[in-house]
Amino acid sequence: MNALNVYQQPIGAALPDWQPRPFPERVVLKGDYCHLEPLQPGHAVALFQAHQRAGDNRSWTWLLREPEQDEAAFGAWIASICDLRDPLHFAVIDKQTGLPVGSLSLMRIDEKNGVVEVGSVHFSPLLSRTPASTEAQWLLMRYVFDTLGYRRYEWKCNSLNEPSRRAALRLGFQFEGRFRQALVSKGHNRDTDWFSIIDSEWPAVNSALQRWLAADNFTADGKQRYSLASLRA
Fold this sequence. Notes:
The protein has six helices and ten strands, in the order E-E-E-E-H-H-E-E-E-H-E-H-E-E-H-H. The chain has helices at 44-52, 71-81, 131-147, 162-171, 202-213, 228-232; strands at residues 3-4, 10-12, 29-30, 34-38, 88-94, 100-110, 115-123, 152-158, 174-185, 188-198. A hairpin with a 5-residue loop joins strand 1 (3-4) and strand 2 (10-12). This is GNAT family N-acetyltransferase.
């Protein structure tokens, strides 16, 4: 509920106990299908090979950089980003194989206001459309909300990136709007769509994700019994 100041102007809800939140750390986040660990040069070869399984470069279309052409170049890129504090990159490690199959990051970290964005999401064919891909997102959300106590978790994407838009909505993000002509990306205009989950929404989002990820939500051949959207409804 909005508060009023001495002039009877609305100034937003009071947050008398709010304190800046901890900065995200290089932690390992464990799940049933995968775990997240800080990205490091040792992940480069297996991660490059995982992305090569795609057969073409369509998964790079909406990324801000072009694909590296060989393991050495990809390894150099990994080495250039793995020690950054923001973005803070994580590798997604498949529990069965122990190999990296994708990566994502926490970025635009604003600990003073408790706001952070998940970005640089790039999942290989070994991870996309699997329970582990959803679990990877959930593990990072849970770390941000439950461990660090942030108030707002953001997702942004090219407005033409329909798979990313669908993924955000499926996971429980709320669409907030479109920033027109936000970037020039690879020589083309980019409008950016903004999505978020806030702390008051997190319990319901968290509950649905946990119910979807539960072993009894999948048949013996790995098909879901209930969709994530239906569990959230």
